[in-house]
């Protein structure tokens, strides 16, 4: 049972345009949602997070939106840069707070110059 | 560097063999996590240590998998009687006590295990 889903395996955008990565979840008992970014042969690195009591969090070019009624999370990157090309993972932290993150399958973003 | 260090970076073994994967967390981080990432999937939780004790080992797939952290720093993931299905990248992460609850983890580069 996949509790966190990223239904788009890949996304390609032009440099300077907006990238929108989507994530859906099935369990309402999550405290935080996060986005991690992963380059080849490297471990995932934390990008941005949002508490379940918020609906938006912004950090520079990155904004995460949370729609609890739709159980939907999205990451907006504006403007997109070629260095943003990577795999992006959505992740959720259960309310039980054990340190267990539940990850989506990932979306590969390619930003074309 | 000062990041999470994992060794070996690559390990090729034969079915049925025993394997150990090592993780050296960021100095001062009391929480340590092991995840497994199969091809085309996101990382999958295995086990979480707070200090020396395993606070949550619910992700270990079966009793062939075991992990220790005897002094609250370095951790070793041990896999007995390896199977081809164990082939994956094994990721270790750490976090300072308290921030792990928000999901902000610091990952190593992973150990790629291939079981022939």
Gyration radius of chain A, to the nearest Å? Answer: 13 Å
Derived from helix and strand composition plus strand pairing, the structural class of chain B reads mainly beta
Number of helices of chain A: 0
The separation of the N and C termini of chain B measures 32 Å
Number of domains of chain B: 1
Q: What's the average pLDDT of chain B?
A: 93
CATH topology name of chain A, in short, is Immunoglobulin-like
Terminal CA distance of chain A:
38 Å
The CATH homologous superfamily of chain B is called Immunoglobulins
Provide the helix percentage of chain B: under 10%
- Secondary-structure-based class of chain A equals mainly beta
How would you describe what is shown here?
The complex is a heterodimer of chains A (113) and B (116). Chain A is mostly beta strands and 113 residues long. Chain A has a single domain (4-112), classed as Immunoglobulin-like (Sandwich), CATH 2.60.40.10. Chain A is 0% helix and 56% strand. Chain A has no helices and eleven strands. The model of chain A has no long low-confidence stretch (mean pLDDT 93). By secondary structure, chain B is mainly beta. Chain B has one domain (5-97): Immunoglobulin-like, CATH 2.60.40.10. In chain B, 0% of the residues lie in helices and 47% in strands. Chain B is built from no helices and eleven strands. In chain B, the strands form two sheets. In chain B, strands 2, 4, 5, 6, 9, 10 and 11 form a seven-stranded mixed beta sheet that branches. Chain B has a four-stranded antiparallel beta sheet with strand order 1-3-8-7, with no helix packed on it. Chain B is globular, with a radius of gyration of 13 Å. Chain A binds chain B through residues 4, 6, 9, 31-34, 36, 41-46, 49, 89, 91-93, 97-106, and chain B through 4, 31, 33, 35, 40-45, 48, 50, 55-56, 58-59, 91, 93, 95, 100-110.
């Amino acid at each position: 049972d996949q509790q966190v889903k990223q239904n788009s395996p890949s996304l390609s955008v032009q440099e300077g345009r907006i990238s929108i990565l989507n994530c859906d979840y099935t369990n309402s008992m999550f405290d935080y949602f996060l986005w991690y970014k992963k380059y080849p042969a490297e471990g995932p690195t934390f990008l941005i997070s949002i508490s379940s009591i918020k609906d938006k969090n912004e950090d520079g070019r990155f904004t995460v939106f949370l729609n609890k009624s739709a159980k939907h999370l999205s990451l907006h990157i504006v403007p997109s840069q070629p260095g943003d090309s990577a795999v992006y993972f959505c992740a959720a932290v259960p309310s039980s707070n054990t340190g267990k993150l539940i990850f989506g399958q990932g979306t590969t973003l390619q930003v074309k110059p | 560097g000062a990041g999470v260090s994992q060794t070996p970076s690559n390990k090729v073994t034969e079915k049925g063999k025993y394997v150990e994967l090592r993780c050296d967390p960021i100095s001062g981080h009391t929480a340590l996590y092991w995840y497994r990432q199969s091809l085309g999937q996101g990382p999958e939780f295995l086990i979480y240590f707070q200090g020396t004790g395993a606070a949550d080992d619910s992700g270990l797939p079966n009793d062939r998998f075991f992990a220790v952290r005897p002094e609250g720093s370095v951790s070793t993931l041990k896999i007995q009687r390896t199977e081809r299905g164990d082939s994956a990248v094994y990721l270790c992460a750490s976090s300072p006590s308290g921030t792990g609850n928000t999901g902000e983890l610091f990952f190593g580069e992973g150990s790629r295990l291939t079981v022939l």
